[in-house]
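User: Hi! I have a protein structure encoded as tokens and I'd like to know what sequence might fold into it. I'm fairly new to this, so please keep things simple.
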């Protein structure tokens, strides 16, 4: 019985690692889609 719980726990840990990797990948993909200004502030179209 203990081996069953241990293997189930190990499977859950592997799934969690995979989720973290997927999250980081999609976070980078999301951030690539936006232009970022080098400084904070309000951008005005009037020059």
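Assistant: Happy to help. Inverse folding works backwards from shape to sequence: for each of the 47 positions I chose a residue that suits the local structure. Here it is:
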């Amino acid at each position: 019985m203990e081996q069953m719980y241990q293997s189930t726990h190990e499977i859950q840990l592997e799934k969690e690692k995979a989720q973290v990797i997927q999250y980081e990948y999609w976070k980078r993909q999301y951030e690539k889609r936006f232009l970022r200004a080098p400084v904070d502030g309000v951008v005005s179209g009037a020059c």
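A useful reference point when you look it over: DSSP finds one helix and no strands in the chain. Feel free to ask if any position seems puzzling.
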